[in-house]
Write a structure and sequence with these properties.
The structure holds two protein chains of two kinds. Chain A contains eleven helices and five strands; from the N terminus they run αββαβββααααααααα. Chain A is an alpha+beta fold. Among the domains of chain A are: about 80 residues, Roll (Ubiquitin-like (UB roll)), CATH 3.10.20; about 90 residues, Fumarate Reductase Iron-sulfur Protein, Chain B, domain 2, CATH 1.10.1060.10. Chain B has two domains: about 120 residues, Glutathione S-transferase Yfyf (Class Pi), Chain A, domain 2 (Up-down Bundle), CATH 1.20.1050.140; about 160 residues, 3-Layer(aba) Sandwich (Rossmann fold), CATH 3.40.50. Helices cover about 45% and strands about 10% of the residues of chain B. Chain B is built from 13 helices and eight strands. In chain B, α11 links the parallel β7 and β8. Chain B is globular. Classes of the chains: A alpha+beta, B alpha/beta.
Amino acid sequence: MSTKQTKKKPAATAAKPRAKRPAAKTAVKEEKKIAARLIPIYIMGKRYEVPEGLTIMKAMEYAGYILIRGCGCRGGTCGACGTFYRKPGDYKLQVALACQKTVEPDMYIAQIPFFPANRAVYEFAGLTAAPEEVFKLYPELFRCVGCNSCTKACPQGIEVMDTVSALFHGNVAEAAQLSFDCIQCGLCTSRCFGELAQYHMFQLARRIYGARIVPRAEHLTEIVKAVNEGKYDRMLDQLKRTKEDELKKLYQEREVEPMGAGEDWKPKDTTYL
Amino acid sequence: MSLAYYPGCTLKTKAKNLEQPAVASMQALGFKLDEVPRWNCCGAVYSLADDDLMHQVAPVRNLIRVKKQGATRLVTLCAFCLNTLKRANLVMKEDVEKRDALNDFIDEGIHYGGEVKVVHLLEVLRDDIGWGALSQKVRLPLRGLKAAPYYGCTLLRPREVAIDNVENPTVLGDFLKALGASPVDFPESTKCCGSYQTVSSPGDIAEYARPILSSASSHGAEALVVTCPLCDYNLARGQKELAKKQSGFREMPVFYFTQLLALALGLDPKVCHFELNHGSPELLLREKKLLSQVESVSRIGG
């Protein structure tokens, strides 16, 4: 994690970014009304008081960290902010995405934004649907002893060990489906003492599944062929030449497929099909 | 009747010819082999180190999940899975300290004390169905098939987990008799096939296979019958090596017991997947008129 800490002491009031905090007395007075309660948290072992209700990520920024890495979408889907934490009096490690989890009093926090996991290099075009492709690229798969630490470390609630087992069984499709929600945060791998890179294996499984196992949509090939043969060129040209008012009228008067229409539904005007 | 069933990884990849005829045969006999959902590795080899608790986690977790499902018995097909699961179960039954540590670590929310009984399919055939009843279900008796039952090690050793008499096992021979075949007793039927030694010393594979094959052959056997994918692998590879070394060496087909079961029950031979066997078992079966001459078994990958 590339972070930089400023020396400023966190102010005891608003949950707004400091840069925007107004200095005027009237504004401070107004802010006090909505002031959040401060709670202590520990970031990499150091105590900070931060307003409750902030996410771990915002609390770190409040505490003075400038996040250059270890933050991405801030919406819980990019997997950049995997975080471990522990609450006092509990030996169990907890996991979260820093951008999603709100701070709790006395939580000890450490982000693992990146993990140096082994990622195999392969030419995808040459891969088949055989599970042996995964076995060859990731032979460490068979070092799994079934401890289940990976599953406990998944902030997405994926049954990580069961997914590893699915690969063991040679069931690439099941592995792809079980790991569908994986966001590649790598926390599973950070806890694995078999040194498996689960999330990279699963990504390979999903790629194989998508490209080699799921049936191809035949009608897509037909449509692409028709497009390439220029079946729709005349219609598109016609559309391009249409004036704005006419376009609006066409749009408003368009025929919409009714709710619950069957597979065989067709519009009244079939000129463009 | 439904039986909780643990397949193991090899049966899903290299040894489909062990699993698929078993599932079909048991269905024909009125039993459903109900695969345990989300099973993990059986542990592959039982660890002999006394403090190697980590090695017991995988087999014990499988057993805990079986208990959670409400089943009291777990059926295996692969002799190695049987061995590791059964021995891990013994630890959970008998060693209080290890049992507590493992339950604590595995963290599946229930306490496990070895309640699930681990059995091999041969035990179900012998004890639940019985040889007499099985022979009555046979539609294509395997008459004239001189097959040597090869037990290997993991069905019978150590004594605590053996499914039969350790010194003089008969279960596989009785099974063959019930199918109408002629079992061939031979002294090497429990001799080691080389097991995982052949991974570190692949050059020795032929020397492990040689005494077993020559003894079976000199006692009149035309085929070997096994329960274990590793025995199958070692004996088949060993034969290939021997054939290279010894001119005139005649390869002997190696069958999984479940293939012969399905065949004798009159099921479609396709379910036996003979194309996955090493050597050419179909030739022998056609010779014995146990496989139709026109039956063409498609080969996968030679």
